[in-house]
Specification:
Elements (H helix, E strand, L loop, with lengths): L1 E5 L7 H8 L5 E5 L8 H17 L3 E5 L8 H11 L3 E4 L4 H11 L1 H10 L4 E5 L1 H4 L9 H5 L4 H9 L13 E3 L5 H13 L7 E3 L5 E5 L2 E5 L2
Parallel strand pairs: 1-5, 2-3, 2-4, 4-5, 6-7
Antiparallel strand pairs: 1-8, 8-9
Helix pairs in contact: 4-8
Amino acid sequence: MRLFLASNDLGNYANKLSEMVGDANRKTLVISNARDYKTPEARLESLNHDLALLKDAGLEPIELDLRPFFGKPEELRKYIEEYQPGLVFVMGGNLFLVATALHESGMDNIIRQGLDDDKFVYGGYSAGSMVASKDLKQYLDNYSKDNGRYDESIAIYGKACTDGLGLLDEYVCPHADRDRFAKYCEEAIEKLPARGLTPIKLNDTDVFVIEGKTKKVYEA
């Protein structure tokens, strides 16, 4: 299993992501649904920013909007099998929107199976990193309560999924060095160990990488 989990964009380690993906298959599917709360214009601006980042890293990204596949997991599975990405990359934004989109489309199962079979790398930043964990309710009283992210998902999709992908036991705490999020990060780092959980504190330049049994935080 190969995971590249960043706090913001690709951190300072775009070269590491490129190395993990390798040269054989640079095709990248960018899941943008964490930004479904934005206006179409603002959503497109965010998407174009991320597509440019990945292109600069030598990858070949296109968007995968999961909304047309809600309730159609077999259609999505067929699309993924035909496209054969070397990287699935999940953008930041609303954690519960992207968790719900992954679940409703069946992309969560596709990601888990694809990583088990080592078909692609999973990458993401912020919410895209956080959703790789298990029980997302662990984030409710920190990153998401004050800004209404959970309620926002219900307003947009009619539901809010709190099941993560379950790819790791740890919980990524992004934006530790950003004024807006620093207090939420510190609160999570304080509370998670008391629940028997391990927080991974990331500044916006850092990434948490898992390659097989090896786990490492790359710090700028």
